[in-house]
Design a protein that fits this description.
Elements: H1 2-33, E1 36-37, H2 40-48, E2 54-57, H3 61-66, E3 67-69, E4 73-74, H4 80-83, E5 95-98, H5 106-116, E6 122-125, H6 128-134, E7 139-141, H7 156-165, E8 170-174, H8 178-183, E9 190-191, E10 209-214, H9 218-229, E11 235-239, H10 240-245
Parallel strand pairs: 1-6, 2-4, 2-5, 5-6, 8-9, 8-10, 10-11
Antiparallel strand pairs: 3-7
Length: 255
């Protein structure tokens, strides 16, 4: 009986040791899957100084044709094997990859493919095209780049119902300046000014509908376009002046 007890005890200890070893190994595996990142400013400096590196746009061919960073090649995960010859022959050469911002996984997926192919100096520009464009840095624009888009709009009545009955399924964003937001905004709205919208969009969940609004539509249209480039699936626009004209309330906040 004592032998059985000792054996059972040893088995439990062995299992615990194995579990701890596995738990310790997991973070190492996760860290190995990540890549170094580079800021917008550092990448621009590299381009301005004509540093030797390969820049890869991991977005779709349509997105690349619409607009992309100067000197960038288009290599998607799907077509990686066919596009492998575009990468430098020297496997230690610097390769920088980007896609549509911090919530876009395309650049990391292509980087993982490149790593599996033997490339060892891979860096991800996590902010991606929308932030680069927002900062006014150089891009190569296609023929349809400035083409006007049709937004999906909510009337004041529709928005009022959504905020009362379905608010958990949406995020309402006021894209005006901070002082305008403080003077009066729709209750429950976040404030992300249009001029820095892409760089601060990481707080917006992709699994919810995103509703952007401003006073008359210009800035919310800009934010809407940025959300499209960030690949948000459900985007809507509302107009604050129409909300006020309908006699619906706004709230104030302190700066």
């Amino acid at each position: 009986m004592n032998s059985i007890t000792r054996l059972t005890g040893r088995s439990v200890i062995s299992l615990l040791v194995l579990f701890l070893m596995m738990a310790t190994a997991l973070p190492i595996f996760a860290a190995d899957a990540d890549f170094k990142t580079i800021s917008s400013e550092a990448l621009k400096d590299m381009l301005d100084e004509k540093k030797s590196f390969t820049l890869v746009d991991a977005r779709t061919a349509d997105e690349y044709q619409a607009a992309h960073l100067v000197t960038a090649l288009n290599i998607t995960e799907k077509d990686f094997d066919k596009s492998l010859a575009l990468l430098p022959k020297e496997k230690g050469a610097l390769v920088v990859l980007y896609c549509n911002g911090v919530k876009c996984g395309k650049s990391k997926k292509v980087a993982a493919k490149a790593k599996a192919a033997g490339y060892t100096n891979l860096v991800v520009y996590a902010d991606g095209f929308p932030v680069w464009e927002e900062k006014g840095y150089p891009i190569v624009a296609g023929a349809d780049y400035a083409k006007k888009i049709e937004t999906t709009k909510f009337t004041p009545a529709q928005l009022s119902v959504i905020l009362k009955e379905k608010k958990d399924a949406y995020v309402l964003v006021d894209v005006r300046d901070e002082f305008e937001f403080a003077e009066g905004h729709i209750e429950g709205a976040l404030n992300i000014p249009a001029e820095t919208f892409a760089s601060k969009s990481g707080v917006l969940p992709k699994e919810k509908g995103i509703i952007v609004y401003c006073n008359s539509g210009g800035r919310s249209y800009s934010a809407y376009r940025k959300l499209m480039k960030l690949a948000y699936p459900s985007i809507y626009q509302a107009i604050l002046s129409e909300w006020k004209e309908a006699g619906l309330p706004v709230v104030k906040s302190q700066l």
